[in-house]
Amino acid sequence: MKDLLKRLDAHYPEVREPKLPFRRFKHETVLSLIDTLKNNEFFKIEEIARSIEGRPIQSITIGSGNIRILVWTQMHGNESTATRAVFDFLNFCNSELLTADYSEWFNQVCMCFVPVLNPDGLERYQRRNALNIDPNRDAARRSTPEIRALFSLLESFKPDWCFNMHDQRNLFNVGGTKEPATLSFLSPSTADGKRNQNQSDAMMMIDKLNQALQDFIPNKIGRFTHEFYPTASGDNIQSLGYRTILVESGGHVKDVEREVARKMNFMLLWKAIELTASGNWSKGTALRYSEIPKNDQKLFDLLIRNVGIERNNQVVFADIGIDRVEIPASLPEGFVVKSSIREIGDLSHYYGYDEVSADGAVVNVELNLNEVADFTLKNNNETFMKVVNGFVVHG
């Protein structure tokens, strides 16, 4: 379909799920959203397992085609960007926007979603499950019900393509640039370390997805390196012979709730359907995949350059890199921010979502790593800049 993503971009405000305005929400909200789909025969909804604490893990299947795509999200309970995008996608399918242009693809494609694989982690807004086990490090032993459910679904659904959807930390930038890695991709490695056809196919698909999304987030897409993790789900599933693509949603400037990455995930899912239905994924190349810049870890939430640090009648000039860490709380957004100093020194090769220059103003307190970022910078004994909990509140 010509200009698919431009059309989706124009319609996106109509289908963006309003009950998921923040990254943190409860499993009850997910269940209620799934309930709204039950009266539409287009959606096949099944309970595939129960979590450690007995919460239902559900799948939603659409389409009747022979090309089978499996998408799972929130394997880590605090990584919800793709979950929200999935419900945006399902809203589109449950609306009058699903014209013949789109629905025809579902005669060729069958798509199965697991919107929340780790509901106990979601409920706590934590990475791990109720036993504090990381489900993404249980793919070899498969002892947890969450991972057993995923591998059981793999065996019964037999997907041609797997999309393993995660979130990554704000500190990732696109290698060699100041741009945040708003999306990152990986075609996971296999146990024997050799590139097989499935891994190459996934690289070709990623190449085509990257080309399409660059129009919307130019230079903000990165790539992870190919270390093999023997207990990770993506690596094990790729090793079993399923084409697997890891998608990591990351930060964007002035976008605390990751709405940009959310919309990119929504578009990515539709583009994957178009590419698989048309076979155009095969026009991608592993070479262009390898040219996607690797992720780096050189971003701070706030970077203050050229700060004077005084001690024993000496002034040393340095940069201060500050991270903002989210602490769960009973607020609508679901968290409060606690900032801390991650690094002090020459950070000229680092970047910040926010960057300011202290112009040599002197800090008024002793700075220690991992402490709350509260301090005042003074120039000629007058306040030049005030930083409270990692935010510039006066300057």
> What value does the Rg take, in angstroms?
23 Å
* Count of distinct strands: 18
CATH superfamily of the largest domain: Zn peptidases
Number of domains as seen in the coordinates: 2
Q: From the 3D structure, determine the CATH topology of the largest domain.
A: Aminopeptidase
Strand order, sheet with most strands: 1-2-4-3-5-9-7-8
Residues in helix, %: 25-40%
Helix run count: 10
Uncertain runs are: none
Shape: globular
CATH domain class name of the largest domain: Alpha Beta
The main sheet comes to: 8 strands, mixed
Distance between the termini: 50 Å
Residue fraction in strands: 25-35%
Describe the structure.
By secondary structure, the chain is of the alpha/beta class. It folds into two domains: 4-296, Aminopeptidase (3-Layer(aba) Sandwich), CATH 3.40.630; 299-394, Urease, subunit C, domain 1 (Roll). It has helices spanning 4-15, 27-35, 81-93, 100-103, 119-124, 145-157, 197-213, 233-239, 259-278, 286-290; strands at 44-50, 56-62, 67-72, 109-114, 161-167, 173-174, 183-186, 221-223, 243-249, 295-296, 299-311, 314-328, 335-345, 351-357, 362-363, 375-379, 382-388, 391-394. Helix 1 crosses helix 9 (259-278) and helix 7 (197-213) packs across helix 9. The longest helix is centred in the C-terminal third of the chain and has 20 residues, at 259-278.
Describe the structure concisely.
27% of the residues lie in helices and 29% in strands. It is α/β, with parallel strands linked by helices and 395 residues long.
Key features of this structure:
single chain; 395 residues; alpha/beta; Aminopeptidase; Urease, subunit C, domain 1; 2 domains; 8-stranded mixed beta sheet; 4-stranded mixed beta sheet; 10 helices
